[in-house]
Amino acid sequence: MIFRNNRFPLQKMIRFASSSSSTTPNIKRFYKNVHILKADNHEPRYEIILDKRKLKTPKGNVFFVQNEPLASMIAAEWDSQKDKIVPSSIHLTTLANTVIDNPGGHTIDSYVEKLISYLEFDTVCYRNSLPTELNELQTTRLDPIVQWFADQFKCSMPVTNDVVLPDIDPHTLDIIRKYLRSFNQWSIVGIMFATENLKSLILTCALIARQISIEQAVSLSRIEETFQTSRWTSVEYHHDIEQYNIQSRVAAAIVFILLNFEKNYIYHKN
To answer: Which of 112, 160, 161, 261 could form a disulfide with 187 if both were Cys (CB 3.0 to 4.6 A apart)?
Structure first.
C-alpha cells in the first residue's frame, strides 16, 4: 500500500540522494568506465560493470538490482567518484549490498518487528517539559504529523512529556505490522535505514506517502538539537553538515523504497 501524493516529487528526493558533504578519502578509484548490464534472467536483473568487471558486494556476491532506473542511479554513484571512492557517497549501493548479503540474516517479519519496536521510541512522540519554548515548538510542529499518522492509518498514537511512552494500542501495532508487510525485502531495508536516521517510523511513513519533504522530515526529527544549537553558535557549522548528511541518507532510503516497491510496475510497463 503506497499512498500517492505529488506534493513532494521523487525527482527532488533523487537530487538529495545523490549528494554528500563527506570528503573523507578512501579506496583509490580503480576503473574508468561504468555501465549497466541487463542479465539474461526470467526476473528483471541489472548488474553494474566497472570497466569489464562485475561489481561485487562485500561478501563477494554479484551486485544487482531489479529495475533499470535504480541501476542507472547506482551507476551514477560510481561514475561520480573522483580519485577516491567515498563509501559515504554511495548510499544506494550500500542499501542494495545489505539486501543481497543480508549480513544479519533478517526476514521481512524480523525487520517488521524491529520497526515496531522503534515505534515505541519514535522521536516525534516525545516532548520536553522544559524549557517552555522548546515544549511549545515541539507541540506546534510535531502534533500535526502525529495526527496525520493517526488519521492515515485509522489508529491512535500516544504523545508524552515523560521518558517512557505509554503503551501503544495493540490494534495500532497490528495495523502498522500489516502495512509494513506489504513491502518486499528490498523496500523494507530502505524503511529501516530511513527510520534509523530519522529516529522515527512515523516520519518515514509520511515520506513514503509524500506528505512531507526530505528537508521537513529531517528538521522535525532534530527539533531539540536545532533548538540547543541556536543557543551555542560555535557548533552551528557542524550541525549544518550533520543535517545535510542525514538528508542525503534519508533521501537515498526513500528513493530505494519507492523504486523497489514499484519495480514490477516499472518492469511490466517497459
So the answer is: 261
Last residue of a domain, one of 64, 80, 101: 101
Nearest alpha carbon to residue 48 among 32, 64, 59: 64
Give 128: exposed, middle or buried? Use CB within 10 Å, 0-12, 13-18, 19+.
Answer: middle
Assess if residue 94 is contained within a domain. Answer: yes
Q: Mind listing the pLDDT tens digit for each residue in 35-79?
A: 999 987 778 899 999 999 999 999 999 999 999 999 999 999 999
Q: Residue 261 belongs to a domain with what CATH number?
A: 1.10.3580.10
pTM metric for this prediction:
0.87
Question: Which domain does 27 fall in, by range?
Answer: 20-101
Q: In 3D, which of 259, 210, 208 has the Cα closest to residue 269?
A: 259
Q: Compute CA 219 distance to the chain's CA centroid, rounded to the nearest angstrom.
A: 15
Cβ(78)–Cβ(55) under 8 Å? Answer: yes
* Distance (Å, whole) CA 213 – CA 211: 7
What's the total number of domains in the chain? 2
Containing H/E element for 112? helix 108-119
Tell me how far apart the alpha carbons of residues 116 and 111 are, in angstroms, rounded to a whole number. Answer: 9
